[in-house]
Amino acid sequence: MPTEAEDVRAALLWAPEHQIDLAVKGGGHSVAGTSSSDGGLVIDLSLMNSVSVDPAAKTVTVGGGATWKEVDEAAAAHGLAAVGGTVNHTGVGGLTLGGGYGWLSGQYGLTIDNLLSATVVLATGQVVTASATENADLFWGLRGAGYNFGVVTSFTFRAHEQPNPVYAGLLAFPPDQVEAVIEQLNRTLEHPDPRSGAICIFAQPPGAPVPMVNVIVFYNGTQAQGEKRFAGLLALNPVVNTTATIPYSQVNALQNPMATYGGRKSFKGVFFHPPLAPSFARSMLDDLTARLQAEPDLAASALLLEFYDMRAICAVPREATAFASRSWTQNGLINLRWTDARKDGEHRAWARERQARWKAELDARVQEGVPQYINYAERTSLHLLSSSLAIADKC
């Protein structure tokens, strides 16, 4: 495994010379499986995981193989936070290069909107710095389409003051309340607050007979402020309520139990333009429930729907970066998990059919094209300047 940019350079030059497929692994979260290569060479960046915080400048410089857990903890030691992902063992590299939504996006935009510079090893073996003032065209491309240009071995981000704990936790509701829950989540977007966000998860907790309607809520403020913000959800009397004030550095661990490594998986990105029709959400929950009851091996599967204030993201001109999906359209993810290899094709086909239904629903509502968040996109491999050199980081 490489420990410096020169090691990465050597691999980049060697692989095409020997016609070897090459993939790059950060945290190993690639939805499309592009952080691995069957029979090829994987550059595992996990040893390049240094994190350096400059409290005076309010910046964080991160190795290309670091995870967000390492960033969150290092920044918190100085009363700071960076805009990162909502699962803390996600790698910094892949999430950043595809855009990067997180709990702080309502206040500070995407992860790429807080990227100040990057060190990149190009396919030629050249090691360059990309920033607003140096290799600006490369810097533009890295922010949103960054899988295509090289291997990033270091990132420098703008950090933000985060001295206070935050209000966050899980609210769980029985399936017969799905319409009421979605209505309340829609209202949070009708009256947006940059300090808040939510992720709705249709999933079957261990021991439960059917999938529940689970909501992870977040408010960057006090418990009283958070409870006021989510009063509508709390009034529905959730059967589980784990909300509390916790350090921000712990928030991105809330989804970890549902995002474990291993097993067979099929992830499919979905999207919706708010307000999400409660009746459509009901149909998707019923569909998932029927599938899980018919296929018990899918019990660890889930459907995730994000509810973020997009105003800070939309405030950045679309042409400023390679990230095109700056709109109020929200993202989601079909996450199927199973163990029986004989069911691979069947389960993947089912997920694709449901993804198509989400696309049709959005097409019917907005009729202006369907955006695709690259970190949730299905793709085979991403090529770096040559069909024989596939460069993919984790997302």
TrEMBL record:
It is an enzyme of class 1 (oxidoreductase). Its EC number is 1.5.3.-. It comes from the Eukaryota. One of its GO terms (cellular component) is extracellular region. Gene3D superfamilies: 3.30.465.10, 3.40.462.20, Uridine Diphospho-n-acetylenolpyruvylglucosamine Reductase, domain 2. The keyword Flavoprotein applies. Belongs to the oxygen-dependent FAD-linked oxidoreductase family. This is FAD binding domain protein.
